[in-house]
Amino acid sequence: MRAPDVVEAHPDVNSDSDAVGAGLDALDTPTAERTPLPRRLLALGLPPLVAFALFLTVWQVVWASAVYPEFKLPAPIAVWEEFVAIVADGSIWGIAWTSVHRAVLGFAASVVIATPLGLVVAKVPVVRAAIGPLLAGMQSLPSVAWVPAAVLWFGLTDTTIYFVVLLGAVPSIANGLVSGIDQVPPILPRVGQVMGANRFDSARLILLPAALPGYLAGTKQGWAFSWRSLMAAEIIATSPQLGIGLGAYLKQGSDFNSMPGVIAAIFLILLVGVGIELLAFRPLERRVLRARGLAAT
Amino acid sequence: MTAVIDTAATNTPATNTPATDTDVIDRRPISTRTAVELRGVGKVFGRGADGVTALTGVDLRVEPGEFVVLLGASGCGKTTLLNLVAGLDRPGAGTVTVHSGRPAVMFQEPALLPWLDAGRNVELPLRLSGMGRAARRERAGELLDLVRLGGQARKRPHELSGGMRQRVALARAIAATSSGAGSDSGGGLLLMDEPFAALDAITRDFLQGELQRIWRTTGTAVLFVTHDVREAVRLGQRVVLLSSRPGTVVREWDVADDTDRAQLTDEITARLREVISTHARA
User: Fold this and answer.
1) Which residues lie closer than 8 Å to B198 by C-beta, 6 or more apart?
2) Residue A28: which of B88, B163, B180 has the nearest Cβ?
3) Which of A115, A212, B78, B114 has CA 20 to 30 A from A286's CA?
4) Contact B210/B224 with Cβ under 8 angstroms?
């Protein structure tokens, strides 16, 4: 068995292997194709608009057929008029602000609490064994279940509302961080280790950035959980000193038997929740994933 | 700088090496003519009857600037050996003495941090050793030029081909050998664990040439692990054949410039096949 001759790289063939290298690089480099912005916007924006238009059409047809009485199913235009009314008298801003600032504050506090909690659960085996299953289980406990207890402990105060929001959001953010850390390829911490990184540098420069996608997914879910926990708390715990947020506004519509008011409130709750996810979380997540070559476009 | 990994055999029982060897702490005057020295190194994973002896009685010296290739089939403990030299693991017996500062390690996969661009990946070891921002950026630029990736510093790993990523990893490893304490004791030590095994044949051939060129330029000592005889003979100044389960040194060959490499490849291949065949009977 004779081995075929191998190409020897000597300084005198340097320019040759320079050319070979450049050729290989040009051939092997992944090419990324980007669709132009107007087309991407069209592809992204058109389908949901069509879906929404279809939904409105079906609603209008069902209403026009008069199968359900008016007080159960109002016309789309009646809901629209209710919405226009609260925009016109300016009360919508107060209502939305009450809820949004509670949700944002509660979410921010949840991030501050859940991040170190998730780190400790992920990296300290005893702590993981002790509270890991509980933390995962907390996610399946609807946070509305905490409202009665919170009302008894704290009364009809802001504390009740924040308590419920925290218990809704903290577990999902912490769990997101834990699974983000669990999914870090083991080779990356080894890279830090062979370069002599100490524990702190390793966490700061390698582990946390590597876990960022899972952590972001967790915070996105944490936002959704804090928003829905807040609505649950606002619907159940209503009192004059709590002011009127979106949940209380929904409750009010129900109390006054105003179906247009109820539906307008539901749409508003959906709008704010989806809007914040689309405006804040989606771009952030896309940026992080695209930088790592993980996003589709 | 000198790091002696002392191995009073406290944590690993049952090795084939006599116990007297393992209790000695190496305090002899250290020759400056060695980058790394292994004496009677053994390593057992697990305990008692279930224990697997990965290495036994391994003696190996790598001189500064020398290119040594460790060759062996699966299960010869090549990776265990590199882990011991890299300080990722401790030997159960014998001593591992590293005279060249912290060795840099290059793996089979590039293991680049996907959220950092090529330049910042190369900067990482410099950053960990406390080099200033401007200095390390300049140094990373030089090293990327060295691996012919000048101008690609702002590219992310996923925008590069497999061969380009492995060259970024090479630049990062060289940055690690030259950063910090290693630089004053002559070139440092680069440990390579089958770094080209996952690449296509054309790219592998090109990178073998590149590694030779870069090794000549930087003068760093290289301990290179492979299971490919041709790669071993092409790259190494010395080829060390390891047996499998347990891994120990079978034979060494020197490769000079005027050596008939094709013939040597055949000779080593024959010997390697012999070593592997013994396992069929066992």
Assistant:
1) B108, B109, B162
2) B163
3) A115
4) no
Residue A61 resides in a domain = no
CB contact under 8 A, A293 and B161: no
The answer to the question of residue A283 being in a domain is: yes
The count of structural domains within chain A is 1
Confirm whether A56 is domain-assigned.
no
Task: Note whether B115 contacts A288, CB cutoff 8 Å.
Answer: yes
Interface confidence, given as ipTM, is: 0.76
Contacts 24+ apart (CB under 8 A), A20-29: A20/B206, A21/B148, A21/B206, A21/B210, A22/B148, A24/B161, A24/B163, A24/B202, A24/B203, A24/B206, A25/B161, A25/B163, A25/B164, A28/B161, A28/B162, A28/B163, A28/B164, A28/B203, A29/B159, A29/B160, A29/B161, A29/B164
Q: In this predicted model, what pLDDT tens digit does every residue of B13-71 receive, in sequence order?
A: 444 444 444 444 444 444 457 888 888 788 888 777 777 777 888 888 888 888 999 98
Q: Between chains, do A2 and B161 touch, taking CB under 8 Å as contact?
A: no
Q: What is the pLDDT along chain B (282 residues), one digit of tens a residue?
A: 444 554 444 444 444 444 444 444 444 444 457 888 888 788 888 777 777 777 888 888 888 888 999 988 776 788 888 888 888 888 888 888 887 778 888 988 889 999 998 889 999 888 888 888 888 888 888 888 888 888 888 888 888 888 888 889 998 988 888 764 444 445 688 899 888 888 888 888 888 888 888 888 888 889 999 888 888 888 888 888 888 777 788 788 888 777 787 888 888 888 888 888 877 765
Look at B158 and A7 and tell me if their CB atoms are within 8 Å. Answer: no
Is-contact B276 B244, C-beta < 8 A?
A: yes
- Assess if residue A129 is contained within a domain: yes
Q: Could you read off the pLDDT of A228-281 as tens digits, one per residue?
A: 899 988 888 888 878 888 999 999 888 998 899 899 999 999 999 889 988 999
The whole domain housing A196 covers: 71-291
**Contact residues, chain A, for B229 at CB < 8 Å:** 3
Domains of chain B: 3-103+227-281 (3.40.50.300), 111-186 (no CATH)
* B203 contacts on A by Cβ (under 8 Å): 24, 28
Looking up residue A181, the CATH number of its domain turns out to be 1.10.3720.10
Are the Cβ atoms of A1 and B128 closer than 8 angstroms? no
What residues of chain A lie within 8 A of the CB of B164, using their CB? 25, 28-29
From chain A, pick out residues whose CB is under 8 angstroms from the CB of B86. 194
